Recover the amino acids of this structure.
């Protein structure tokens, strides 16, 4: 049993959380279920409910109240079973603070003068308190203006970092619920928190960044609620009785890195004996509207892996160069022992240039951490309130030998559940897929970012719009993206304009003021639809429908009676390889062709969403609008022969993938696309928009062989060129690193940028053979299309209903496929040259030779 899209049910912010359960393999398809709610004071059961539904099933009882804990279990009736199944193990869901009136805490922070225009030394806050009896239950509800890490009696609370994450803070500030029962003891206790600037008041954004985007204060907001063994309670909230003091972190910034002076650190600071007289002074209190405090919709950011360096090279008397073999997002943990005052500096970069860290692509992100040793013995340390994107690191200021055992790279990202895997007989394609996974990990850090290393790291709407189908196969990212889309709706302008990136920060002169842009703004319609299709969550579609509708209505107005969106600022096919390094929007495809195509596509998907939501009037209206815009598109951009006015691969890919052509135009357009690809020796000629569509456009018009040639090309520009150049993540530009080893001269050169990795969705569906045919994978089409010399592939997806897998191999007699269909689902297997076969739940082995004989 699970609740909503959360990793567990603790501190849920929804009074009627939806329930999901999976049936064991071989258990048979569900025909009915019964849910039991154990509310402590009594047990409620639904009785037998005739239904096949088992994903995001409506809460079956009275709504939860704040702090209420309920144990939930389910049993099911399956076909041909004489009796119900055993009950599942009980799983608990516990509400957080659901009402603003539940909060008594106020923000508390340092009460000393600070210069808001300069770097400010972070504070720590603390409070001592006494517990009179043994504790049976304790919850800490906690958030901050800025970032925080909490300790109780010297022990860290939780393992999440960069909490509370980045939301549109004036409207939504996340709090987290922690079970801290085991942290407390009868008698005197102490609670404290480290504070950091983070996105709230740190320097962030372009051209030197902007400080204090949301405020100038740095403050903790926390509420500890304790239940004693006799049922009585105790509550402690942040208020004016708390104390503050400067911490041993001297400076900290998400871009800049962190400086830590261990000489100033008392490890007992958050214990009852940790307050030094005169150092701690009364905290300053602030104001926060508790109505803006919200519980998380998805998992938090935490360490998911540790990597040792594969090489440590001394490059000077006090310098060592570390290679971790993988471009990653995280930070270093070092264990060192040296004289007091020894300053050890850690610098980071994604690539090397002439054997040194290539720091130019970082622009104004210093990505430098400094540890000042205390001289009190070995110290294990990593920074708290920063992250870096890097494969290489330089350690300077350390004269002794540095061993691989002394340094670990800790990988951080939103800890989503992995749900998709792919591998095939081509090792370069496997590395490409692995690069996609690593780029998703590195850029799904609370929000879906564009890059993790330079002075940007923003939630660009166009990037995730093209990548969402890939992302939702690889990871259960529904909760995280739902939360981010909520902020997209909050940042949407009154006229319906969707910002280029969310949350919005200053971006003069290009990105501020905000203008509507195709492909980027269409995240409002297309990404909720993707989440609905992949995870079966109709509620996501319903809640974000007003945002999608406002966007399409805006574009309808911009297009006017002509139904052509052919005015205004557009990015077009961003980063077309033909575009000059200093003008990524100057591609070979008419940017207004792209804009009008997306207008049709979004209007069509809005009509589909209206149909799913039962809004017949909107379905009819937006379906007609999509048809009118498609007619206008053909009149303006398509010649009668099927040729496009922009004779470019992206133009054909968009027209074909978005179904904008008449039946008589489709094949000539597909043939011309294939011809263009062949004439360019199957090298990539598309940017952010076209790259996610071109392989499908070729495949669907009978040019599967050309799609494979495009996939398997190793000359620049191509996906596998980056692999042959040693890439371990997806690059922002096809030639971020040139064949001679030099960096692309453009000022926008990232080596970890998932957008061009959207081809992995084609790998999963066409090479791997798994296509979602109904929301939540209730129906699946298993249709592998071998080619390119690939002789086998294995693809697996953990759907909401269970494991879907397809493994195929070419043999002397045809193709052999191993298939797994989860309980509650059905599949259609369409193997090459064979009549489609309907499959039920379970494991299946199919041979094309045998299927052909049966058909004959």
């Amino acid at each position: 049993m699970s609740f909503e899209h959360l990793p567990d049910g603790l501190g849920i912010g929804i009074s009627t959380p939806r329930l999901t359960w999976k049936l064991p393999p071989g258990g048979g398809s569900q025909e009915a279920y019964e849910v039991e709610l154990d509310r402590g004071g009594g047990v409620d059961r639904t009785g037998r409910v005739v239904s096949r539904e088992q994903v995001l099933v409506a809460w079956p009882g009275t709504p939860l109240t704040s702090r209420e804990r309920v144990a939930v279990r389910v049993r099911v009736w399956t076909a041909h079973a004489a009796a119900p199944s055993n009950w599942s193990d009980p799983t608990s869901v516990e509400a957080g603070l659901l009402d603003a009136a539940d909060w008594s805490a106020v923000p508390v922070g340092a009460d000393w003068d600070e210069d808001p225009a300069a770097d400010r030394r972070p504070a720590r806050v603390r409070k001592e308190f006494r517990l009179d009896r043994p504790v049976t239950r304790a919850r800490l509800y906690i958030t901050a203006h800025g970032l925080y890490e909490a300790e109780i009696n010297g022990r860290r609370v939780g393992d999440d970092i960069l909490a509370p994450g980045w939301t549109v803070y004036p409207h939504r500030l996340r709090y987290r619920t922690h079970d801290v029962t085991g942290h407390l003891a009868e008698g005197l206790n102490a609670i404290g928190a480290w504070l950091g600037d983070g996105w709230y008041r740190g320097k962030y954004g372009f051209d030197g960044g902007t400080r204090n985007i949301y405020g100038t204060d740095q403050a903790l907001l926390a509420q500890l609620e304790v239940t004693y063994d006799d049922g009585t309670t105790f509550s402690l909230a942040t208020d004016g009785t708390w104390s503050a003091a400067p911490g041993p972190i001297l400076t900290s910034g998400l871009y800049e890195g962190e400086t830590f002076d261990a000489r100033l650190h008392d490890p007992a600071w958050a214990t009852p004996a940790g307050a030094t007289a005169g150092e701690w002074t009364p905290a300053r209190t602030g104001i926060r509207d508790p109505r803006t405090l919200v519980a998380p919709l998805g998992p938090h950011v935490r360490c998911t892996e540790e990597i040792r360096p594969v090489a440590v090279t001394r490059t000077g008397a006090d310098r060592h160069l570390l290679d971790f073999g993988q471009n990653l997002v995280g930070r270093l943990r070092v264990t060192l022992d040296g004289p007091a005052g020894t300053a050890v500096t850690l610098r980071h970069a994604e690539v090397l240039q002439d054997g040194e860290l290539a720091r130019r692509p970082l622009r104004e992100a210093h990505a430098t951490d400094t540890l000042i040793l205390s001289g009190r013995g070995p110290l294990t340390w990593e920074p708290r309130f920063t992250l870096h994107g890097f494969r290489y690191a330089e350690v300077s200021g350390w004269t002794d030998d540095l061993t691989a055992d002394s340094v670990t790279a800790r990988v951080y990202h939103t800890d989503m559940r992995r749900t998709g895997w792919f591998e095939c007989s081509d090792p370069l394609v496997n590395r490409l897929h692995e690069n996609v996974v690593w780029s998703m990990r590195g850029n799904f850090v609370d929000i879906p970012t564009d890059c993790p290393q330079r002075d940007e790291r923003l939630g660009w709407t166009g990037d995730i719009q093209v990548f969402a189908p890939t992302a939702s196969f690889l990871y259960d990212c529904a909760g995280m993206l739902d939360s981010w889309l909520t902020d997209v709706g909050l940042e949407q302008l009154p006229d319906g304009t969707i910002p280029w990136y969310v949350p919005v920060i200053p971006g003069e002169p290009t990105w501020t003021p905000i203008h509507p842009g195709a492909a980027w703004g269409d995240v409002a319609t297309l990404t909720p639809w993707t989440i609905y299709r992949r995870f079966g969550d109709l509620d996501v579609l319903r809640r974000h429908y007003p945002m999608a509708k406002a966007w399409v209505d805006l574009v309808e107005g911009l297009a006017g009676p002509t139904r052509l969106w052919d005015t205004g600022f557009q990015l077009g096919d961003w980063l077309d390889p033909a575009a000059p390094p200093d003008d990524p929007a100057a591609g070979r495809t008419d940017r207004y062709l792209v804009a009008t195509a997306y207008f049709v596509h979004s209007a069509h998907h809005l009509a589909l969403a209206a149909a799913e939501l039962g809004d017949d009037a909107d379905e009819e209206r937006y379906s007609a609008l999509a048809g009118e815009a498609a007619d206008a598109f053909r009149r303006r951009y398509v010649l009668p022969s099927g040729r496009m006015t922009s004779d470019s691969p992206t133009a054909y890919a968009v027209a074909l993938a978005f179904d904008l052509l008449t039946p008589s135009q489709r094949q000539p357009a597909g043939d011309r696309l294939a011809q263009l690809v062949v004439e360019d020796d199957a090298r990539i000629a598309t940017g952010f928009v076209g790259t996610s569509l071109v392989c499908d456009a070729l495949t669907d018009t009978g040019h599967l062989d050309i799609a494979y040639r495009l996939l398997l090309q190793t000359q620049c520009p191509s996906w596998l060129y980056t692999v042959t150049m040693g890439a371990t993540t997806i690059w922002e530009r096809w030639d971020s690193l040139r064949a001679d080893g030099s960096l692309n001269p453009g000022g926008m050169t990232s080596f970890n940028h998932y957008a061009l990795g959207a081809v992995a969705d084609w790998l999963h569906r066409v090479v791997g053979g798994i296509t979602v045919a109904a929301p939540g994978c209730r129906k699946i089409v298993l249709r592998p299309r071998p080619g390119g010399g690939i002789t086998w592939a294995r693809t697996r997806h953990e759907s909401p209903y269970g494991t879907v897998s397809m493994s195929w191999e070419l043999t002397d007699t045809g193709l052999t496929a191993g298939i797994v269909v989860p309980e509650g689902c059905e599949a259609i297997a369409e193997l090459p040259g064979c009549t489609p076969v309907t499959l039920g739940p379970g494991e299946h082995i199919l041979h094309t030779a045998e299927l052909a004989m049966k058909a004959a």
Remarks:
- The longest helix spans residues 538-559.
- The CA atoms of residues 439 and 781 lie 28 Å apart.
- The chain has a mean pLDDT of 96.
